[in-house]
Amino acid sequence: MASDEQDSFESLLEFLRDSRGFDFTGYKRSSLERRVRKRMENVGIATFAEYLDYLQVHPDEFDPLFTFILINVTSFFRDSQIWDYLAGDIIPRIVEETDSQGPIRVWCAGVASGEEAYSVAMLLAEQIGREGFEDRVKIYATDVDDEALSQARQAIYSERSLQAIPPRLRHLYFERVPAGYSFDRDLRRSVIFGHHDLVQDAPISKVHLLICRNTVMYFNAETQARIMAHFNFALKDNGFLVLGKAEMLFTQVRSFAPIDIKRRVFRKATADDGMPELAGASSNPGNGQGGGQLGNHIRNREIGFDMGPVAQLLVDRHGFVVLANERARDLFGLQPGDVGQRLQDLELSYRPVELRSRIEEVTSTRQPVSIAQVPWVGRDGVSSVLDVRLVPLIEAGGRLLGVSVTFEDVSRYHELRSELETSNQELETAMEELQSTNEELETTNEELQSTNEELETTNEELQSTNEELETMNEELQSTNEELQAINDESRDRGVELNDVNAFLYSVMESIPWGVAVIDEAYHVQAWNSTAEDMWGLRAGEVRGESFFGLDFGLPVRELKTPMKRCLEGRSPSEEVKVEAMDRRGRSFTCKVTCTPLVGPDGPRGLVVLMAPNHQRPTS
User: Fold this and answer.
1) 8 A C-beta contact, residue 142 and residue 107
2) The dihedral of CA 11, 16, 21, 23: what is its sign?
3) How far apart are CA 164 and CA 548, in angstroms?
4) Which of 111, 181, 439, 521 is the most core-located residue (most Cβ within 10 A)?
5) 152: closest CA among 170, 140, 168, 138?
6) Residue 202 and residue 303 in one domain
7) pLDDT of amino acid 248
8) Do 59 and 84 belong together in one domain?
9) Distance separating alpha carbons of residues 37 and 537, to the nearest angstrom
10) What SS3 state is found at 326?
11) In this structure, what CATH number is given to the domain that contains residue 591?
């Protein structure tokens, strides 16, 4: 990531901390950046600076962002082999080591939606009984995700969430409710949920069991060390710590002793768990007789002393060098004349280490003094490391004769120790890198599991939508079939109607007189071709028009009364002769016959026959 983008990301983290109190600065940058970028992709933002501006304008964006960062992947009895070990070994030990009436305190950190807290509650209830659990147990379940804590407090889970719970425990501790399955209310009172930041907030104290699985792995090494210090403070002596399968304690071995590495179970270390310290030992050449007589008493030992493998010299109580073996002479370039001289007059008194004050200390306290890892460069230019040991020489009567000074060459040991420390550092670095890689892998697995759950939910929604679409398709198909049937019926009726119309047209055209069909409002509904030829009005001109409003050669006003009587049913037929004029202007006597047009409910109109008087209409 470019430096500008890195600065923008850090500014974003500082904004989240200052505005909402969520301090993600201790989280691993790679995992944190990946989660934030995934949320940015969802809202269509490319850079951290733009996303910071977006958060400032859209405060409702904080909740979905925190949901993406705080991966809440959990379940009942997740990794069953760990819970089997807790049930069969750890919890019985906690109960056994606790007073029969004493409280049992458990802290579940990073509890998310509460499944782990209720899992350990069931195991404790199984171990000490329901009544003992209600009287003695307190389970503190904490997280920084308030939305997840709200869900945990409700203690209602789906049937799918309960699949990992043994049937017997499911039957004992869960009750069927409309929304799913509810955890036992009496045991629920002993589980206390609360908001808690592992980095910033003070730890819960005096707990017998602390469960924090796959939460610490999201933090960097420095923050992990701080959290582990909090955990160490939180646990009672010999309390148990359970971590996630991707988490180890390479940097905290002195604070916690492993109980089961495979299952990530540790115990708070005590003084008895420490490594025994190794004390170095130096040879003591034996006692001399002191003063000027020391040389006489050790003369028979000079050869053995002189050939000793460790550089050694003897200084009497007056500060004179009385003996120096061959190894000391070669190492420090002492001349034969230097033996018998005062030590303070020799370069050896202050190189390679200041000896006079140490000799005075040994003389006054009569206790040995050791000086470890003194660097020295010999006459040949070869560097070495010496362990210097000063031992008081005391005769049987308790009189101090002098001081033995030995210079043991520990260069090889020092090299091996340095190599060992380097190897240990490299190993620790490799182990930390391995741990980091393992945690990254576990984080990725958590993210993949979360994504998989989201995809499963989406798939179920799509399947439900598909089923709805199939149902709608079937309904549409059924409706289409009905419409097809209606269409076929309409087409058949249309054919029938065409036939009827053709028939009526044939009837109308077959009548040799002018025919007008009139409705109840005296509007013309039909007008045959004979009427067109007689009066010069086409059917399209008169259809829908009032019969009495037509302007043609027939005096229609004289027909109004007979037509009304006929329409009202007072007369089955009316016949009137009137003087008329055809379309050519010729006058003639027109015989008009009105007959009711009868329907199921009575007269619906009139049929008016118009014929010259010399023609004789037939009914």
Assistant:
1) yes
2) negative
3) 93
4) 111
5) 140
6) no
7) 64
8) no
9) 84
10) helix
11) 3.30.450.20
Q: How far apart are CA 334 and CA 323, in angstroms?
A: 11
Token pair 């949901």 in the structure block, residue: 67
Backbone angles phi, psi at 447, to 5 degrees: -65, -40
Q: Which domain holds residue 147?
A: 80-272
Please give the angle made by the CA atoms of 523, 525 and 530, to the nearest 5 degrees: 115
CA distances from residue 551 to 328, 526, 535, 554, 577 in whole angstroms, order as listed: 157, 17, 10, 8, 19
Q: Report CA torsion sign: 137, 106, 207, 83.
A: positive
Which tokens sit at 461?
């929604």
**215-235 pLDDT, tens per residue?**
877 777 788 888 888 999 999
Burial class of 105 by CB neighbour count within 10 A (0 to 12, 13 to 18, 19+) = buried
pLDDT tens digits, residue range 507-520? Answer: 888 888 999 999 98
pLDDT digits 0-9 by tens, 43-84: 888 888 888 888 888 888 877 787 777 666 688 998 889 999
Helices (H), 511-573: 529-535, 539-542, 560-567
CB 552 within 8 A of CB 536: yes
Query: Alpha-carbon distance 194 to 109, whole Å?
Result: 10
Look up residue 480 and give its two tokens: 């289409």
Q: Considering the domain boundaries, does residue 427 fall inside one?
A: no
Cis omega (within 30 of 0) for bond into 352: yes
Q: What is the spatial distance between Cα 285 and Cα 94, in angstroms, rounded to a whole number?
A: 55
Residue 107: give its domain's CATH number: 3.40.50.150
